[in-house]
Specification:
With 288 residues, the chain is an alpha/beta fold. The protein contains eleven helices and eight strands.
Length: 288
């Protein structure tokens, strides 16, 4: 079975070798690595082509700068694999990532997406921690409303999911992965495997580190999902998920932006007036 690995990149010359070499070192060998250069101005093209000349499984594509969601869709349009994986160009994999993912599909044949945990590293590649969010298996739409607990770089997805429901929406500047997993959760089954399947690098200039932008974007993604797939969750699950999202937002802003915190609590209480979590969040904001 062929696996298509999709790597969008933009001016990541310093980190690309680690990403590419981690793929070439995989114990499972039947793959293609599709790298989409999103208009880089550094030496990414020359670097990637050096690998492509040595290994025909490495494919180089170029587009004018249009953001990574467009780059991922470009790669999806040419991918030939039975399964799809995503690897960001500043992250990398342990050598058994693909093998463990394939084994998970064999163990859970009704799964459509398998995923696992990350090891967080700093810009220099030093391990920071192995703490991960709680993760879930099965029909996870109701749980995914509360927060995105799917680590994109750890996933492997059956190609049919993209054929049937499409790829990245491209609507948002950030969180296009959350958009994708919510969409897939309306129809497909997820399987979490308790394995470390990726090294996730945190850096100061990452767009994903902008918490305010992420909260704003996630709220829009959730509301769009509920409007487009109204039957994916029950009303009770919908209310619980939205309330939990606003409570989490309130707690985040409790000491930094009380206006945002109070607005989030109001939203949570409108949805679930008797929510103990919302009233506890209110107390936290008042006392902070």
């Amino acid at each position: 079975m062929l696996i298509s690995i999709i790597t969008p990149t933009y001016n990541r010359e310093a980190f690309l070798p680690a990403a590419i070499e981690s793929v070439l070192a995989q114990s499972y060998k039947e793959f293609e690595l599709i790298i989409v250069d999103d208009g880089s101005t550094d030496n990414s093209r020359e670097l990637i082509n050096t690998y492509a000349e040595k290994d025909s499984r490495v494919k180089y594509l170029y587009q004018e700068n249009q953001r990574q969601s467009v780059a991922r869709n470009y790669a999806l349009s040419v991918a030939k694999g039975d399964f799809i994986c995503f690897l960001d160009s500043d992250n990398y994999w342990p050598s058994d990532k693909l093998e463990k993912s394939i084994e998970a599909f064999e163990a859970y044949p009704d799964a459509d997406i398998v995923y696992g945990d990350c090891i967080t590293i700093d810009e220099q590649g030093n391990e920071l921690h192995r703490h991960n969010m709680r993760r879930y298996s099965g029909r996870i739409a109701a749980l995914l409303l509360k927060d995105n607990f799917i680590s994109m770089n750890t996933t492997m997805t059956r190609r049919k999911c993209f054929n049937e429901m499409g790829g990245m929406s491209g609507k948002r500047r950030v969180a296009d992965d959350y958009d994708l997993w919510l969409k897939f959760s309306a129809r497909y089954r997820f399987q979490y495997i308790p394995e470390f399947l990726a090294y996730y690098r945190v850096m100061e200039n990452q767009i994903s580190s902008n918490k305010k932008l992420r909260f704003e974007t996630n709220e829009k993604i959730i509301l769009d999902f509920l409007a487009e797939y109204p039957d994916a969750v029950s009303k009770q699950e919908r209310d619980a998920g939205l309330s939990a999202f606003y409570i989490r937002k309130a707690r985040h802003y409790a000491s930094s932006d009380k206006t945002e915190a109070y607005a989030a609590i109001r939203s949570a209480l409108v949805i679930k007036p008797l929510s103990i979590g919302a009233w506890r969040a209110l107390v936290k904001v008042v006392l902070s």
